Amino acid sequence: MGDGRVTVVTGASQGIGREIARAFATRGDVVALAARNVDGLNSTATVVAEAGGVPLVVETDVTSSDSIQRMVETVTNRHGRIDVLVNNSGVGGPSGTMWEVDPEEWRATFEVNVFGVFLTTRAVLPVMIDQESGSVVIIGSISGKRPLLGRSAYTSTKTALIGLTRTLAVEAGRHRVRVNLISPGFVSGPRLDWVMAAQAQTRGIGVEEVQREFEAASAMGRLTEPEDVAEAAVFLASDAAGGITGADLNVNSGVVMY
What is the pLDDT of residues 153-206, one digit of tens each? Predict the structure, then answer.
């Protein structure tokens, strides 16, 4: 990294997305920051600049093909190429048993977590194909492979991303574009705090007990940190991973190992 590459990170206004942007910035990348929350993106831009990268803030709604196309045009008009796309945008979706979940909340979860990845990648891939190079990293979740009570909408979207990654890897591989997935574990931060609170309420137990269970499920006895996910994304996008595509990389402190 650090050789003038241009990286796009969606969902870059906070959390894992901000940490991913920071990690790419330490390699000297131009980092295009895409999300709806402009204030959050501006905060991330400061982090990117301090880490040695070149930030580009682009307000983007990943559920809108027009918004995504404007983002791609902004990046390519400014920097001429896109070398890396990290699809990190996602929502937690509703929490509750499937038969009690509002169908519109279910639909909205797929709209961002799956359709948003489709739209964004669909818009970026032609740029990479013209370059005959590129790397797409999709942020999934162990929830796509490990049941979690009351999280049917979210887990279904993350399972869908596994199939999407494998298919895209086959379709884009002949154009020297690699596509890989990261399945993070229980990543510490505000979203996990919300998940643990919802789990506690659903099961009638304390949040502390839920956290202890999450930690105990890990081979390492700990939660996963955002930095763990970010460094894995940098690796998958790098030349060091040049022979890796269609992979589903578990970055979850050993919660799942298959």
Answer: 999 999 999 999 999 999 999 999 999 999 998 887 777 787 788 888 878 899
Which one, of 141, 25, 27, lies nearest residue 87 by Cα? 141
Contact 142, 155 (CB under 8 A): no
Answer whether residue 207 is part of any domain.
no
Detail the DSSP E strand segments found in the chain.
Answer: 6-10, 30-35, 54-59, 84-87, 134-139, 177-184, 248-251
Is 258 among the catalytic positions? no
pLDDT one-digit tens code per residue, 7-59: 999 999 999 999 999 999 999 999 999 999 999 999 999 999 999 999 999 99
Count of domains for the chain: 1
Token pair recorded at residue 29 = 């990348």
What residue has token string 């969902």? 11
Active-site option among 41, 60, 135, 154: 154
| CATH number of the structural domain spanning residue 10 | 3.40.50.720
| Residue 233 forms part of a structural domain | yes
Report CA dihedral (145, 146, 151, 152) to the nearest 10 degrees: 50
Question: Considering the domain boundaries, does residue 50 fall inside one?
Answer: yes
Segments forming the whole domain that contains residue 142? 6-187+225-251
pTM for the complete prediction? 0.91
